[in-house]
Amino acid sequence: MGVPEAESGDPILGMSDAPESGSQPKEQEIFDTTPDGGLRGWLVVLGGFLTFFVTFGLINSLGTFQAYYQEGFLASEPTSAISWIGSTQLFLLFFGGIIFGPQFDKKGAKALFIPGTFIYVLSFMLTSLSTKYYQLMLAQGVLGGIGDAMLFYPTIAATSQWFKRRKGYAMGLVIAGSSLGGICWPFILQALFQHVGFPWAMRITGFICLAFLIPACLLVIPRLPPKQTQVTKKDLRDAFKDPRYSLLVAAMFFVFWGMFLPFYYLPIYGISHHMTIDMANNLVATLNAGSLVGRLASGLLADKFGRFNVAFLCALLAGTLLLCMFVITTSNGIIAFSVFYGLFSGGLLSLYLACVAQVTPNLNLIGLKNGILGVFVSLA
User: Fold this and answer.
1) Following CA atoms 358, 360, 366, 371 in sequence, which dihedral angle do they give, to the nearest 10 degrees?
2) pLDDT at 33 > cutoff 80
3) 0.85 exceeded by pTM
4) Distance set, CA 53 to CA 29, 80, 179, 189, 209 (Å)
5) Cα separation of 180 and 76, whole Å?
6) Which residues pair with 10 in a beta bridge?
7) What is the CA radius of gyration of the chain?
8) Quick one: how far is CA 282 from the chain centroid?
9) Who's near 210: CB < 8 A, 6+ residues apart?
10) How does pLDDT run across 138-156, given as a tens digit for each residue?
11) Residue 28, pLDDT score
12) 215/202 Cα distance (integer angstroms)
């Protein structure tokens, strides 16, 4: 039996887009008047797409950096040590939510987006000057991670405020920017590394990011005015009083524990199983091509069958594939793995923050709840 689209509920898990009955009238009014898009809302989605293309899109291409560093001027460093550069960037992206999520609730998007753009572009300029491991760790890992976080949280939170029934689809479109970026960036980076060298490759990348982030800064605008009060201990306690949110946080902690392994190690894994360097580097783009389809399709399916239902299915299938990865040793098998893992992991990544919005009746606290979840997944 079909599920009425207007409810956007989760018949299996008992989730509903409607606020809880005990919510304050003001929260109910905020939720009920969500425009579900409109020109302004879809422009926010466009701005989010541009942002994710140059932020999470490059994070999805960390395997390309990993392979280049390992084959290049960090060849003397262990593979695990090199991976800490990307791991640190990813950790700060998620952990930064506890700072930048509440700051969005209090100050809005521009207060984070403008300095975040400066910091993010600066990280590439400093990376271009780096020749040692610790320099790359500070420039790309630390500074890049902070800039990522300052752009990530206002984008996600602002998008959530403009949609109700079509929230899953809107989030899928925004996060699809990271998949398209993950398809394009490995080829762009490889071409730049070969033709202009690493320093100018990083500078050109920084300028491309700036060209995308300037219009995004103008487009990503929250629907609700900033919350003028500070986040209190009561806000933190109330967040975890909702068992749906608490279970979501716990579930995503375990899901993120191993989710990004293929994004880092798939090119190295391919090389170790006799794939050429070019073919192995293309695995990142192949994975992100699958992820692009997964993020768009999961958003549409989630708005019809329930965001939690579709997210659960994607997590189950991605986890099953990850357990099978190390018995797949042929070139064709590794390519097929990259497509299907991208499909299901991308579907999950496009939905988990939509699930947070679904269990947040007071959208003025969406930044806080995204931030709390970010802290937990950063520790995974």
Assistant:
1) -90
2) no
3) no
4) 34, 27, 7, 14, 9
5) 33
6) 15
7) 20
8) 21
9) 117, 121
10) 999 999 999 999 999 899 8
11) 47
12) 21
